[in-house]
Amino acid sequence: MVPDGRAARSESGQSVLDRLADKQLVIVSGKGGVGRTTMATVIGLGLAARGRRTLIATTGHDDRLAWMLGQPTLTDIARPVGDNLWAQRLVPQTCLREYGTMVLRSARIATAVFDNKIIRRLLHAIPGMDDFAVVGKAWHEAARGTDFDTIIFDGPATGHLMYTLGLPQAILDTIAAGPLTKEAQLMQATLSDPSKTEAVLVGLPERWPLTELAELGEALGHRMGIALRTIVVNGIWPAPSTAFADDGSHAGLGDTLEHLRELEAVGASHRAELASFIASDKAQALGLSEMLAVPWRWKGISDRAAVEALWSSLDRDDASVLADAS
Ligand SMILES: Nc1ncnc2c1ncn2[C@@H]1O[C@H](COP(=O)(O)OP(=O)(O)OP(=O)(O)O)[C@@H](O)[C@H]1O
Ligand SMILES: [Mg+2]
Description:
Strand content: 5-15%
Radius of gyration: 21 Å
Mean pLDDT: 84
CATH topology: Rossmann fold
Strand order of the largest sheet: 3-4-2-5-1-6-7-8
CATH class: Alpha Beta
Bound molecules: adenosine-5'-triphosphate, magnesium ion
Distance between the termini: 10 Å
Shape: globular
């Protein structure tokens, strides 16, 4: 049986949020629109509550992250959004400049370089440079910076994320040794160190989306060496309720009950898909230890109260759905 919103507890006895709190970099990914930013915010609230100075850094163009945290907009510099919690939009132009300044180790040289229009245009024209700067900036804050304990990287959706996170290795494979390869090497070392970096994948409780999620997990975990222990299955509809059993006593409710049964049927199909995914070879091959099943919230998740309510429903010590289904 797959329950509604449950906090996963791994074999080690730690909950997902307890475990993620040890990391420097948490990468949240999945397909577009599946709830990546919502889950990045939930994880951010959980880590900040554990005393970790946490930055949620998003590459998204919308302001949902800001709204969920009670702010009007996001800025391209980290702004405090609560105790131990900051939020920022990662803009390639700003990241290139900031990351470049860090690599050049001199604001004076960086000004000379980045204020030169021709150099600036040249840098943006190099394929992958903008994305490398974005991941470089997130990595720098996580691994070298002292302002934050954990960076939650609400990165691009699946395909673009693979490209972006693959850039350090691509640089190592193709460019002669130099300052850039040194950076790429350090970045790659952090990304593939499970004590420092972990990916959390978000998907929907339907057959094809779950299959795609397993493929993304396979690519991130096995091909790119990024630790993956938790999948979040978002938007699970309510479980059938015995209050609406067809025993004749609800005959007068007619159409309303019929609608409720339809809703229940979708919820039941979500659970069946999730249970069969958990038992599938593909899911087993990922070696996951936890899976969060996140309920669909009818009223939406658009403000801080709603996202905090979701967080408190997930930050509990219940058994994981993975353990539950096995
Ligand atoms: N469990 C849920 N219950 C109800 N609504 C949800 C849930 N999870 C996400 N949503 C809603 O779905 C929409 C998409 O969520 P979100 O912005 O987190 O997705 P995303 O993967 O970051 O999208 P994008 O690809 O646009 O960046 C939002 O309107 C959000 O409020
Ligand atoms: Mg988003």
